[in-house]
Amino acid sequence: MSSRVKKETAASIWQRMQDGKWAFSAKFRMAGSLPPNHFDGIVVVDRCGNVAALTHSINTSSWGHTGLFVGGISIPDAGALYQGAIQEAGAGKRLPEPMCPLIVLKDGKPVLASSAIGGGLHQKTLQVLTSVLDFGMDPQAAVEQPAFLLPAFSAGPPVAQVERGQFDSKLLDAVRALGQEVREISIQEAGAYRGYWVGVQIAPKSNLRRGVGTRQAPLTSVAEGY
Question: Which run of H or of E encompasses 125?
């Protein structure tokens, strides 16, 4: 069992997958080739009910073609997006992990696992979880609801952003009346601020698994359960 956590074992399995000799390779269907976009949201549930949720990202917008890091700081942009977090952590300290993969438990058993990527990953995750857990909405329907985007940060309070035409104007006016500024942006602008969510819902009694995710994600890969 101890061999399973060794790098040599992982390298051997990866090579077998690349050679098409891994026993479960046929279970994977990839939509097109995968360019080095440096981020993935991954949720896996195996036949025994073990659940894993993770986010793979170099967590920066200007990574160039290297993806090089030193002490958790991206070399291509010198941590430009995280100056505040760097100052708060202090010299020689690790930065807090801002990704949000999660596993939701009920009576000690997993019922929902998710991961998210994109600029608005936190906003998308919070909205989907609230819709599913608090309001009992179907997960795929929750994912497809209009979403708040990553806010625009300025010298003053953050400005909430939504895609133009996604929310009723009366609702947005009501939010503004409460003191929260809201800006509508075009679908082209929204791309950089949108969150992409993927998850697996597990029925507590039947153990039925259902995978759902953002349909408009730029690339999609599907792994069938076995």
Answer: helix 121-129
Domain boundaries, the chain: 61-97
CA 43 to CA 176: how far, in whole Å? Answer: 37
- Region of 96 (left: φ > 0; alpha: ψ -120 to 50; beta: rest) is beta
- Number of neighbouring beta carbons within 10 Å of residue 119: 19
* Three-point CA angle 204, 137, 150, nearest 5°: 115
pLDDT tens track of the chain, all 226 residues?
677 778 888 888 888 877 777 666 555 544 445 455 557 888 999 888 899 999 887 666 555 555 666 666 656 555 566 677 778 888 888 777 778 899 999 999 999 999 998 888 999 999 999 999 999 999 999 999 998 999 987 677 889 999 999 999 999 999 999 999 999 999 888 888 899 999 999 988 777 888 888 876 544 443 433 3
Bridge-based pairing state of the strands 102-106 and 109-117: antiparallel
Closest CA to 96 of 72, 70, 78: 72
Give the list of residues 6+ apart from residue 147 with CB closer than 8 angstroms, or none.
120, 123, 124, 127, 162, 163, 166, 194, 195
